Amino acid sequence: MSARIIDGKAIAQELRDAIAAEVAGIAARGGGQPGLAVVLVGNDPASEVYVGSKARQTVAVGMRSFEYRLPADVPEADLLALVDRLNRDDAVDGILVQLPLPGHIDANRVIEAIDPDKDVDGFHPVNAGRLLIGLPGLVPCTPLGSLLLLQSVHHDLSGLSAVVVGRSNIVGKPLAQLLLQQNATVTIAHSRTRDLPAVCRGADILVAAVGRPEMVRGDWIRPGATVIDVGINRLPPAPGAAKGRLVGDVAFEEARTVAGAITPVPGGVGPMTIACLLRNTLQAFKARHG
Ligand code: GUN
């Protein structure tokens, strides 16, 4: 069997097209323009790439993009003061502080300073709590994107066995909550799980979000299962190459011969994350403007 490849790029493009159409409709009736503020501290090259990409896509769907770049040694108090200013700025509907932050800054303190109604990352404890108890709120972008990809394969997740490998606050835990809301039977597995391959083989839906290149092997996968690979890891360069290959947390070539459907890396979950950030920004705008 050869798995269906879930085209995250195409699904993200459809989502962005729908967002752009809605933003244009709001503008046409004089309803205003959603705005997203992104704050980057320091100049981590990977973060620079993400932030540039976010800004381009924000403008492409017709939203306003505000970018703030602070030096790596910025005092925490200055960052908190900027967040406070953005909280009170009516043109700003969404605030994202790019992670990771330099070691002298307490990321949790910064996240808690963001107005939960503008927390388009969905990382604030109020939004995490809303998700846990099933109240409407802003949901983290990567889990949301992963769920949308799953729903492109399965109309109904009810009763399916879902195994999420990874228990981070950013992906594993919120995705488990989303799957539970969809009536899946959810297992969260992690580095201490006993016989992880056997646990994974029990999954109709297997999500890998551990950050370890090609950890999930083909024989960990139940034939016909749907596999979502959240990992994005760069391998060491091959001899003579400038850069190593990008791979996920799943050994793709093995997995595709067993799975029913699988996301590629790159081109799977990655493109969905920014599309969901724009979706969250539109949701925050609509909530703030009635
Ligand atoms: N760094 C890498 N991905 C993300 C993300 O989704 N949100 C934030 N704030 N920082 C990140």
Structural description of this entry:
Catalyzes the oxidation of 5,10-methylenetetrahydrofolate to 5,10-methenyltetrahydrofolate and then the hydrolysis of 5,10-methenyltetrahydrofolate to 10-formyltetrahydrofolate. It catalyses: (6R)-5,10-methenyltetrahydrofolate + H2O = (6R)-10-formyltetrahydrofolate + H(+); (6R)-5,10-methylene-5,6,7,8-tetrahydrofolate + NADP(+) = (6R)-5,10-methenyltetrahydrofolate + NADPH. It holds the Pfam family THF_DHG_CYH. The chain has 290 residues and is of the alpha/beta class. It has two domains: 30-115, Rossmann fold (3-Layer(aba) Sandwich), CATH 3.40.50.10860; 141-270, Rossmann fold, CATH 3.40.50.720. The chain is 40% helix and 15% strand. The protein is built from ten helices and eleven strands. The strands form three sheets. Strands 1-11-8-7-5-6 form a six-stranded parallel beta sheet. Helix 7 (172-181) links the parallel strand 5 (161-165) and strand 6. Helix 6 (141-151) packs across helix 7 (172-181) and helix 6 (141-151) packs across helix 10. The longest helix has 21 residues, at 8-28. The radius of gyration is 19 Å and the shape is globular. It starts with a strand and ends with a helix. Residues 50, 96-99, 121, 141, 273 line the site of guanine.
In short:
The chain is α/β, with parallel strands linked by helices. It has helices at 8-28, 45-60, 76-88, 107-113, 125-133, 141-151, 172-181, 196-201, 252-255, 269-288, and strands spanning 4-5, 35-41, 64-70, 94-97, 161-165, 185-189, 205-208, 226-229, 233-234, 246-247, 261-262.
Layout: helices, strands, pairs:
Blueprint lengths: L3 E2 L2 H21 L6 E7 L3 H16 L3 E7 L5 H13 L5 E4 L9 H7 L11 H9 L7 H11 L9 E5 L6 H10 L3 E5 L6 H6 L3 E4 L17 E4 L3 E2 L11 E2 L4 H4 L5 E2 L6 H20 L2
Parallel strand pairs: 1-11, 2-3, 2-4, 5-6, 5-7, 7-8, 8-11
Antiparallel strand pairs: 9-10
Bound molecules: guanine.
The site of guanine has 8 residues, from strand 4.
